[in-house]
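Please, structure for the following, as tokens.
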Amino acid sequence: MRLYLLALNPTDSVTEGFLPAAARLGLEVTLLTDRPDAHREAAPDVEVLECDVRDFRAVITRISTHHVPDAVFTNSDHLQTQAALAADYFGLPAKDWRATLRVKDKAQMRRHLAAGGLDAVWSTELPPGQDPAGLTGLDVPYPCVVKPREGVASEDVVLVDGPAELVLRCKDIQARRPGAALVVEEYLAGDLRSLETLGDGRIRHVLGGFRTRLSPPPYFIEERCTFVAAHPEAVTEQVLAQLDALGVGFGICHTEFVVDGDGRARIIEVNYRAIGDQADLMLGQLLDIPLFEHVLRTHLGDPLPEDLGARTDGVALVDNPCAKSAGTLTAAPEAADLVVDGVELTYRPLRAVGERHELYHTNRDFIGALRALGRNTDQETVDRVVADFLAAQRWEITP
């Protein structure tokens, strides 16, 4: 059976998660990408073909002139609609392209939820090239959030306190993204959480979720994600009802939300793919299930089991040390796999010593990823072991 996997830049989710899972399932994989050299280096044993994967027509043509597909899949935020349309063209199991488009477009997601009476968030769009000064004539609730309408990973997402800053921030983002539409919306206060779900269109499993520690405002860098086996039932039901309204229920999904003082769950964004930033790798290990295989099987048309058989005795988190300044990384710890007081630690560097980077105020500032997992232990123990490990490491950035 042949799997076509659409990708942009290489990610750990694909290289360490989905490609090994495909090999374990015995699938022939063809990876379509606009960055073939990077993927050939990351996955030298996989067939890689160059393709304009942002254009669903190019994807369909590339597949049509190659081998017959059994599944078309992507874990990229940017390519969900293209993969859904291509899979549907070939009569294969797929996400509803309307749903993928609906959640990728943050303004459309807001309109759809409001029209369904589920949640109304004040928001407005700033089309590409439009002068943001016009926003000062609107009744904008401050503080507010500015972000690209179709952005990901906290890229160019910023908290704004007043009209002058709003105009300044919009112009700054427009200078970097001249073709991007922006969204200005009310700031949804509360602790950031996530819900991880996996469905086949017939049954949907809740895999748990995370509580996320963010960097100080005005930016929204996700510095630490701590696993939560189950959010309060009323909260989970609210999030699932909003996902139903959006048409989200096939494959894996990572939904970010906050809970306000009245117990109302308010969606920040829906990422119709696995959580990423190595938290998905940890999630499969924590639950002790073939998570990536389950995801691929849904796209092959196989039903999910009624019971995934997930373990419930684990405590886990992912911590991402971040660069605090621009410059060259001149000292950093190497990869490590340790067991300390019963806690499994997996550290992976995300930048090589000698690399120079600007300060992005996004997840691109991550310089490492530390996964911590404990069985039959408590959160305090895991937190302590993580704190001790991080305190013993040294990262140096030279301007």
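The chain has three domains: 2-94, 122-186, 192-398. The chain has a mean pLDDT of 96.
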